[in-house]
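RECORD TYPE: inverse folding
INPUT: structure tokens
STRUCTURE:
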């Protein structure tokens, strides 16, 4: 029988392949500051069509493939690694994680069970312990890494449901503000809750969940025979960066025996800084917390985390054995991630967090996050001095939102003008901002979180903003 061997590279070929990729990557990173930040407004149907192809029967030259990836595909659309990207909730994508992925994908070890890759599982467990320490969780807390905040949120809702409600959750109610990230609505639906189980409360003037309104809603729901079960709060909303009053919500949840979940996907890692720690007080009292290292720890997409205060709740929800599985650990010292999370076979996400944190030490991440807080303060002060603009949501951390001052006849014309201003700024291709609507008002958001954003880029933003205002007069 013929023995196919072309999937195995020689030592020289392996080096050549890595060198070829390294050259492209080095060029990509070096030229990043001059690249357009966002060309997603110009989706080209021709480009998309040119990428359609059938099952390849024959081989294509590697260089040709790299040309396709780096020269044709990469320049089209939004560039979230750019020092000018300040839209949505950015992060930047530390290159270190790509090195970690190269190593872990080459080793391809199975990290779902301690016995199978004991040291690597411990590395991932260390990362989760560090996260627990960052948010002030106790010793018994456990967690796992996910592909992102949405998947972590789904597991949080399912864990809370399983632990607090068992099999019958027909009367359960989940409380959340109208400012919470929509992944909560999605998670509740996927976890089996009907839309009527979500009690959405209008946020207060500062876009936060109001504990008094919450208390009242619970009383009303109880009087209708419903079962208040969970409060879902935000430690930094996507819309305006608002932080819900966590200590009050934690006290209320305790008093009423509700599960408090906090979405800290954006804000959580600011606990590394003194200012962030103050703002996020109370996070440590939540029953579950979602963090997104691919946001405020600057990692590339594909790294989220769920932390649960009572680690045993994760095991109670996810543990499920089979005869063909290797031996699982008893006790708390060693952990099998397949017993704590929905995944059985999983990528080694721990290494992509561990490597950069070990290479630099956590202090460097703290400094970068502090810098983002300073840059946000700076741009906010500049905007406050421009009479044409009104700050609608001052920054709690590194997201703020503003609009043109209300000198317009209608809300529609004010919104249209603010949109036009944002388009003008984005068209300069030095920064990319995104907007949102709060209570009908269109606002421009500035989200300072890409680790590559520094003072020069903020000054470019201010110049383009001022030029946009001048162009409108
Ligand atoms: C506050 C917040 N929560 C949750 C999510 C969802 O996270 P992911 O996109 O990683 O699934 C996001 C995404 O932007 C977010 O900003």
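DESIGNED SEQUENCE:
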């Amino acid at each position: 029988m013929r023995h196919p061997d072309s999937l195995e590279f020689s030592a020289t070929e392996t080096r050549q392949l890595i060198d070829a990729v390294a050259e492209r990557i080095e060029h990509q990173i070096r030229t990043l500051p001059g690249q357009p930040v966002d060309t997603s407004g110009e989706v080209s149907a021709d480009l998309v069509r040119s990428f359609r192809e059938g099952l390849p029967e024959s081989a294509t030259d590697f260089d040709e493939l790299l040309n396709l990836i780096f020269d044709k595909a990469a320049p089209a659309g939004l560039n979230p690694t750019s020092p000018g990207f300040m839209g949505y909730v950015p992060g930047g994508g530390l290159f270190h994680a790509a090195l970690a992925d190269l190593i872990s994908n080459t080793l391809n070890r199975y990290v779902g069970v301690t016995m199978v890759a004991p040291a690597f599982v411990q590395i991932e467990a260390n990362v989760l312990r560090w996260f627990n320490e960052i948010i002030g969780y106790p010793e018994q807390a456990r967690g796992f890494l996910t592909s992102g905040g949405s998947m972590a949120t789904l597991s949080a809702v399912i864990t809370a449901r399983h632990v607090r409600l068992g099999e019958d959750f027909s009367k359960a109610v989940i409380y959340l503000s109208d400012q919470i990230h929509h992944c909560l609505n999605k998670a509740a639906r996927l976890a089996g809750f009907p839309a009527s189980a979500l009690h959405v409360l209008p946020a207060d003037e500062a876009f936060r969940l109001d504990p008094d309104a919450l208390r009242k809603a619970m009383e009303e729901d109880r009087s209708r025979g419903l079962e208040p079960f969970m409060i879902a709060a935000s430690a930094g909303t996507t819309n305006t960066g608002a932080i819900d009053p966590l200590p009050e919500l934690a006290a209320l949840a305790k008093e009423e025996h509700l599960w408090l979940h906090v979405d800290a996907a954006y804000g959580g890692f600011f606990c590394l800084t003194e200012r962030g720690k103050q703002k996020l007080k109370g996070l440590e009292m939540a029953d579950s917390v979602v963090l997104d290292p691919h946001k405020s720890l600057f990692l590339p997409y594909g790294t989220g985390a769920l932390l649960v205060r009572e680690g045993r709740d994760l095991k109670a929800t996810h543990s499920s054995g089979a005869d063909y599985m290797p031996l699982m650990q008893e006790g708390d010292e060693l952990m099998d991630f397949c017993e704590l999370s929905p995944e059985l076979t999983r990528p080694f996400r721990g290494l992509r967090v561990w490597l950069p944190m070990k290479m630099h030490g956590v202090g460097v991440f703290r400094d970068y996050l502090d810098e983002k807080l300073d840059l946000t303060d700076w741009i906010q002060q500049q905007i406050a001095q421009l009479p044409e603009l009104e700050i609608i949501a001052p920054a709690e951390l590194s997201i703020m939102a503003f609009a043109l001052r209300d000198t317009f006849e209608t809300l529609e014309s004010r919104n249209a003008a603010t949109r036009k201003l944002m388009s003008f700024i984005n068209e300069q291709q030095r920064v990319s901002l995104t907007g949102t609507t709060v209570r009908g008002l269109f606002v421009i958001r500035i989200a300072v979180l890409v680790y590559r954003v520094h003072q020069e880029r903020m000054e470019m933003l201010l110049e383009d903003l001022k030029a946009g205002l001048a162009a409108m007069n």
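NOTES: Residues 89, 148-150, 181, 183, 238, 263, 265-266, 292, 304 surround pyridoxal-5'-phosphate (CB under 6 Å).
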